[in-house]
Amino acid sequence: MKKLPNHLSYEFVVFNGSYDQLVQSVSSGINDAAVGDITITADRASQVEFTMPYTESGVSMLVLAKNESESTTKWVFLKPLTKELWFATMILLPIHCLGYFDD
Question: Solute-binding protein family 3/N-terminal domain: from which residue to which, for each copy (predicted)?
Fold first, then answer.
């Protein structure tokens, strides 16, 4: 704030309510902005504009994008690598192992 060309006056106010109520207070103009660990959801993003997060919480969730059959999901571990890379691994790994145990 000190490096800005003009002085900006501000006041931090403690908000006692839910995150949805906090976002609504900014959306309705009761508060000018909100600072905190507010999760960006589609509903909240439709009401106010969020800045890009400057840190990551490290918390993530892994879910299926659609209801896939069991036969498809049991091979999901193969998806991170391309077919060519899996093929090269299957060819080179035995060759490496043969050289390792050759002594």
Answer: 5-68
For residue 35, what are its two tokens?
Answer: 């600072």
In a domain, 64, yes or no: no
Residue 30: φ, ψ to 5°: -65, -45
Cα 99 to Cα 103: distance, rounded to the nearest angstrom: 8
Q: Are 60 and 66 in contact (CB under 8 A)?
A: no
- For residues 8 and 1, the answer to whether their CB atoms sit within 8 Å is yes
Residue 14 C-beta-side C-alpha neighbours within 13 Å: 1
pTM, two decimal places: 0.49
Domain that holds residue 82: 19-56+69-100
Q: Is residue 13 part of a domain?
A: no
Q: What band does 100 get if pLDDT is binned at 50, 70 and 90?
A: low
Q: What is the largest CA-CA distance in the chain?
A: 77
